[in-house]
Amino acid sequence: MRLQREITAAVLIPAILAVLVAAPPWAWALLVAAAATVALLEFYRLIEAAGWIVPRPAGVGLFLAFVAAAYLASLVALAVLAGVTLLALPTLVMFTSPREAVLLASSASSVFATLYVALGAGAMVGLRAIGWRPVVFLLAIVWAGDSAAYYVGRRWGKRRLAPVVSPKKTWEGLWGQLAAGLVFGAAGAVLLSKTAPGAPRTLVIGAALGLVVSVVAVVGDLLESTFKRSCAVKDSGGLLPGHGGLLDRLDSLLYASPILFCALTFAPEALPR
């Protein structure tokens, strides 16, 4: 399992960074759309495993429209699509004539899954519109934190962080992840900065953002674990050897990317672009 995990990361990380840095923004948008579509379908399978109903074609179509609107930076389109999703998916669930007992659960889970993945994917596309550096900053913090939590937890982990939701996660792994967020946030801000890279302010802001992103990433990971537990499923899929499904790998990014996007929107000087 450990070897599979490392091989998968060694193959995928350079390919992802190559598309992010060397390819035009539309290539990154296509990559995000493709990966997040698979993650959304995995989420839909979780919902169906619980015995609920999902209007898949409509959900995927609305999701792809969200990504396109994010690429075009159209706030009006995003707002309209959110409203359409909220109304259309429950309506389609109703017309499938399910048992009354699953109507509310099916409607609510369909809308939530679609908007949950769409918000994260749209934020990742929006970050790339700002520049490739913020996306590298985000990926470095989330990936480094995830690895730190995994290896620190395996080596020193004793106290369970959330035994009901995720039995393998430990407090020691959490501290390792937060420490990695601080270090990589500070280092990333300095290395990626175009102006005054050595300024104390750059270091402090990078460390603070790294810590915030790490905390949100942990919450996103635990939240996805609650989804799987609720549906009595161990992994969202088996696409990535040693890692599970794409939803398992993207859960932290989907949760953390909107936070970083908001930070850069309201404080554009926070990080270089």
Tell me what you see in this structure.
With 273 residues, this protein is an all-alpha fold. 77% of the residues lie in helices and 3% in strands. The protein contains nine helices and two strands, in the order ααααααββααα. The chain has helices spanning 2-22, 25-49, 56-71, 75-95, 103-130, 132-156, 171-192, 200-230, 246-266, and strands at residues 160-162, 166-170. A two-stranded antiparallel ribbon has the order 1-2. Helix 2 (25-49) packs antiparallel against helix 3 (56-71). The protein is globular, with a radius of gyration of 19 Å.
Concise structural overview:
This protein is mostly helical and 273 residues long. 77% of the residues lie in helices and 3% in strands. Strand 1 and strand 2 form a beta hairpin.
Give the tags.
mainly alpha; two-stranded antiparallel ribbon; 9 helices; 2 strands; globular
Present the secondary structure layout.
Blueprint lengths: L1 H21 L2 H25 L6 H16 L3 H21 L7 H28 L1 H25 L3 E3 L3 E5 H22 L7 H31 L15 H21 L7
Antiparallel strand pairs: 1-2
Helix pairs in contact: 2-3, 2-5, 2-9, 3-4, 3-5, 4-5, 5-6, 5-9, 6-7, 6-8, 6-9, 7-8, 8-9
